[in-house]
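### Sample
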Amino acid sequence: MAEIDHVIAQWISYYLPYLLASLLLLWVLKMKGSDLRHRWFAFLMHYINKDMDPKIEELKKDFFSSLSSITSHDPELRKKKGIKILEIGVGTGVNFQYYPDGSHLIVVDPNPHFAKYYDENRKKFPNIHSEEILITTGEEMTGVADSSVDVVVVTLVLCSVGDAHQILKNVVRVLVPGGKLYILEHIKEFNPDKYWIRSVLQEFLSVSGIWPFLFDGCCLNRDFHSALDSAGFSKVEAEKFYAPLTKLLFLMIKPHLKAIAVK
């Protein structure tokens, strides 16, 4: 515990000047309107995702490995051994590499400035039919029909949404009977007795608005386990764990939840 606290103290001393400078910069951006902040966040995610930690890639590869065993409700996709996937909060498209060949991908994201990064990325995966981004939120994705997709994927999205319960309600709506939700999210510290400094910092950075301001609404103090349990799925398998993140900037989001829920 002392070692973890020392590392977090290092994180504070190293990144505080950068956080304050970024806060000042983003305050200026806020005065210029939300469009610039959306541009900033899209660029930031593009930059971060260019250098993905191999341990995280391995974790996600293992988590999504069961996608290949799913049989699509769509006869044409079954012939290709593909599935119909809806990804909510697609961002730059970092999950393409985990989807089965021949799959049909529908994507939703409220930030229009992710589109150019998403388009660049999907060119690398001609084995997947990917649609244009639907510029909307998971709460309001009326363009996705009822009982129309085999799988919904949500990764590192619910931390910044307005209503996670409504999104999960929509997920149940669009999934075919027996369809699955794959969710991988960072959550609030689930062992505050041991990692109390991280727990306090998560609460402070979220309630103060500093972290949401810097990262386009992202909150560090959320947990989605209870929301999953009450969403109406027939089965939920969920696990809380610490992601193998090593960079100081990411110590605040080490606590994670991974779950697969069945309609």
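The mean pLDDT is 87. This sample (Methyltransferase type 11 domain-containing protein) is used throughout the tutorial notebook.
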